[in-house]
Amino acid sequence: MFEGTAVTAHLVLEDKIFVNAKDKLDLEMTNIRKNIIDKAMAQPSWGQTFPKCFIPLEIELIKLIEKKVPIITMVQMKKINSGHPIKPLTHFELKVFLKFQHAIGKLLYFDVPNLDQHIILSPTHLIDAFKSIVTDKRFCEGDKKRKDLWDVMSEKGVISKQAIDELWRQHKYHKFQKDKDHLLAMMNYLDILVEPKRYDSQHNRILPDFYYVASMVRTTDYTGYLQSISFMQRNIGIAFQSSSLIIPPALSFRLISYCLSIWSIKTYGEHDVNMLFHRCAVFVIDTSLDMHISCEDDQIIIRLVHSRNRSFILKDLASSISECLASALNKISQLYIKSSSEQCDITTKSFEMKLCCSAPEDPCFLSIDDLSSIGGTWLCPSHGIEHGMYTLTSWITTKETEKCQLNCPVLNEEFLSEVPSALHLRRLSLLFDVDEVRVLVIHLGLSYTVWSDLYKMEHEPELLKFQALRCCFENSAVTFNEIRKAVEAGEIQNPHTICKMCYISSLDEFVISDSQPEKWDIVLTDEHIDKISPLIGKKSLQFLVELEMDFHTWEQINYRQTERDLVALNKSILNEWKSNLCKATNVRPSMRKIGQAFKNIGKDITVLEKMLFC
Ligand SMILES: [Zn+2]
Ligand SMILES: [Zn+2]
Ligand SMILES: [Zn+2]
Description:
single chain, alpha+beta, 26 helices, binds zinc ion
């Protein structure tokens, strides 16, 4: 009946169904029902819960897309929402709606500061904007301006903000001009364009006038950096090896972009070459330490290079950096799986971390499991270089020693009669897992009903543990001694675990022996925050506790930080501390407090000192 007409495209049912509208019991109706249900269940979003009230908004957005509106602002979105005859969504529901639409790939919306005021209705708009900057050389033919930009990008990996502005002023790209700031902010957020870190004389962040575009660099390292004098004695290395697949170039660009957003690029040699190359880069960690990253087809090799000798590389620094890079690699490879249309099974597990020998090229590898069986030193098979255990273990977080000193608090009567503070309780809750805390609080006299009520209400384990402990302490003044007895009676770990609750402040001792103790009195700046964040590694929660923030703050920060990016997480903790907690409590955000917290999470204070004051 409809053959040859445009309507055919809308016909999806194979069956021909004839309905007798006069017959109440017409069996064909069941057929229609079945067909519709089958079709619905075949839809990709089948099974996802979906509030009815989303539908009218979705229709409004589709209308806008049909009118070729690629981006709208949050203000416009709210207007559309409130102008609707059916009950409008609340602000919270609207965000849920946008995040849902984002998750199913219909639009782009990121609920983060600076980006949450715009909604990209047509994701291809962003891709087109991106392609106007990052493109293949053959698309620049006949366009001198773009060709020149391409040459600079392929050689140096940079593009000036002014050049983008001029490019988008051209008629062809005019459509990007209107929402320029948002499009650039998005590309920055997605690590396509990276803003280098720049500071004013007060160490506050300032906006640089150019971006890095790591994916565009075509040059290779010709500076002889890897062949420089005594390189072998100056570096330690690790490799992230992909067991199954070739590492896609896009993934290595993302990793280099990630590093560009944290550390600055090294300039090297008599011509001060910027060490950013094709899938390879050198970053400045501190005045005497560089990080060399080289991405190959099946592995990524990371080297820390000291200016004098590898034995000067501080252990805690190497392990914090490897933690941050491992989590970034994890995040990037997962993003890559999500965004790539082709089937690809790069998973976290397919990256194995191995130790590298110090040879500048074709290094030997040592798996971390084999480390214990090699004895005191490792003579690498291909080059015969000797590697001491001290340097080899630099990358690995060493387990804290369980032994206590002679004057350990558990044996000190005076200490045991004290009542723990809120900070002590938070530390205590971090020392045990949920099961151990359950045993502990029951031994401290909490009734099982109170525990099971808490257990049902609180799903965040860190909050649950702390709440349970706080309940015990609300009822009576529980002393350290009672905790010790409960730990012993419940046979939880060992009694000395609780010694970790009361670190003795040795930062003060450290400062006194120092020639300029006043240097720790400086106020934490943006630049400090950027520098310290990678040093905390995965000890984010412990660090937050040591800065005397509570678990609700942790919950909020952690919730905002949906992708596992350790550096960003640590940065939000430091920002939160400086701009909210310190302001609210009228505390001066001094480096001394940061140093103390850094030391209390078991990190080497000299790492921080070198980073900040050298
Ligand atoms: Zn249709
Ligand atoms: Zn070797
Ligand atoms: Zn002890």
